[in-house]
Amino acid sequence: MPIRRRRALGALSVLLLIAAGTPAPAASLDHVGTFVWSGDDDSFGGFSGLEISPDGSGFHALTDRAHLYWGSIDRDSQGVIRAMNIAGRAHLKDSKGIPLPPGYTGDSEGLAIGDDGRIWVSFEGLDRIARYDDADATAAALLPPPKVPGMWINSGLEALAIRDGTLYAVPERSGGEDQPFPILTFRDNRWNRAGEIRRDPRWLAVGADFGPDGWFYLLERDFQGILGFAARVRRMQLTDDGPRNEEILLTTRPLQYDNLEGLSVWHDGQGIRLTMIADDNFLFVQRTELVEYRLRD
């Protein structure tokens, strides 16, 4: 059968399944590559937030001690990471221009960069979101988020994403393992709610991004003690009535990767690519990893 006709029949089959009320085949992820990143600076490590440029050639990476790194990415002909080249580093400041110390006020977790280039960072400990016009700027003083179930010490607004100028923040925990994650939105210095995300026991929300397909991607983590970390990626469509069409795209084995905490979703020319970064907790027994998958529908 000619390839064109076969593709047409395949697309028609999916449409007929949807029209008949039968779910279309779920998407899946193919592993592209894993890169272990190292650095000599004392502030290097603990990466919890990640933004990859739309063409995959640049990055911003946020540590959980209020340092932001940026630079370029070298890739081979298959698009696999071969080098992370640091071009700059900044120590983030508070609204008074004072560099943030590690700990309660400087526990930076989520990273989002708007189309205007402004940098948004979510913090836990002292729960808040800060806006930076550039990496060396003083933080803008913004309205603090409302308290929601699960926002305790070391479990605040961990996952952060931006779409059309609106920030979407998800706390690391909910009120209980059987309670959904609330979705908070922030725009024009006002907070609102955008529904809830179903939570499965043990899984915690640690990273988020909107893909070029408009879907909301959520990275989750499960710490299993001496067995190490497992990770999971879900995607869903955020509507006025809350999340819809949720899919689990990836569930890793314990110890398959390190402590994946940051997520960036972009298009590599062949398909949607997911890039994740691991937080090594500044421990020599852990490693800073960048793990990449390509979405296959």
UniProtKB/TrEMBL annotation:
Signal peptide extent: 1-26
Ranges of residues in domain Phytase-like: 43-282
The keyword Signal belongs to this UniProt entry's keyword annotation: yes
Protease recorded as keyword: no
Key words of the record: Signal
Domain of life: Bacteria
Designated name of the protein: Esterase-like activity of phytase family protein
